[in-house]
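Might I ask for a little of your time on a matter of protein folding? What I wish to show you is a protein chain and, alongside it, a tokenised description of its three-dimensional fold. I should value your view on which stretches of the chain appear to form regular backbone elements. You will find the record immediately after this paragraph:
***
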Amino acid sequence: MNNASQNILLEMTQLVQVLVFIAGCYFFSISVMGWRKPRTKSEECPPCKRFALVIAAHNEELVIGHVIDSLMNQNYPRELYDIIVVADNCTDSTASVASRHGALVHKRFDPHKTGKGNALEWMFSKIYEQNDRYDVVSIFDADNLVSANYLYEMNRQLCKGYKVVQGYIDSKNPFDSWITCSYSIAFWLTNRTYQLPRFNLRLSCVLCGTGFCVDISVLKEIGWGATCLTEDLEFTMKLSLNGIKVAWAHDAIVYDEKPLTLKQSWRQRIRWMQGHADCAFRYLVPLFRKAFKERNLAVFDCAVYLFQPIRFIFIGIISIMLRIQSFYPEIPFFTVQHILPELVWHIFVLLQFIYGPLVVLSENKFDLRMLLGFIVYPFYCLTWIPITIQGIFSKDNKVWSHTAHTRKIRIEDLEKPRSPQSPAHRPEASRYQ
């Protein structure tokens, strides 16, 4: 390899690693604010918001009844919310099961406009026609289970003036397989190191596809219009462009079912990344333009989040470079290790191993089985690299990939039943009081 080629290679690897290092420092510095837990004891708000709880379901007869039952048992006045199920292109008994459990069922048949985003768009148009019957729409997936305090906590945040609020996404099957354990770790880390810090810093959180609330006035003002494969991310970016931040409700808990196998997980995450890449190509430039023009850090942060797929690819490139250099030291790959003091580098490496477990421990999620989870979790993270590449190159594929659900889990299996006299059962109870 001649000197010119060596210089080009060194400069390219230097650029990649510096960009990844800067991005890592940016996300880590923000994540530190997640160690400050919300204190809500003195922020009570009597139930007043009227909710339309919407569940878009496609062939979910096995699980739809459980999410409806958990919503029926909310510590919130029953007359202030309705449970609405959109039976979207169903060929099973989803509609009849949902009706039997007490939900208002709307059947939708449109083979040309499939997917959750289109089903929600269809349902919202019907809600608009009901003469201001509801103040807020809350979205759930059919495989969810909802904590009893969900509506009370959402009402609390909405009464403060927030128009869009995301709840805490937990896992209802964290130890079914190494994949579900990895998923669970990822969501717990996201809740505490991404969502909560941004709320504390008055930036914007990101919608997670389920367990969130939107004020009807916002939907009427800017429209839903989120019909890509990741409708939640698309609507988040649409909100950001319209100057609306997503708030956070740390005690409004929704349990989500995670895929059991790598194959199921791969298919689901490919869909996520296709939608993410699609949103990035459409929203990245407008977001950066708005952020710099208005000097808006919240909008800039949303744009940086859209840049994540490129960061994953860069991390993969760095991993390959370091592996090659370990066998061929003469190859002039640049690494940030060379410009950092030795002590700083060792601290940086140590944090990679202990930060995640410390976060999970602080969330009261620690379990001995979690030790095994953190051993396999790096492999789960590495699988994001080929998934990201595949997702970017297939971003124009709009075919919705449905994830089959097989686990019959009830809310009683996750949260111990409490007597009405128990302080923890009352709406004003909080995990952090």
In short: Residues 342 and 380 are 29 Å apart (CA to CA). The chain is about 50% helix and 10% strand. The two ends are 64 Å apart (CA to CA). The chain has two domains: 3-33+303-393, 47-276.
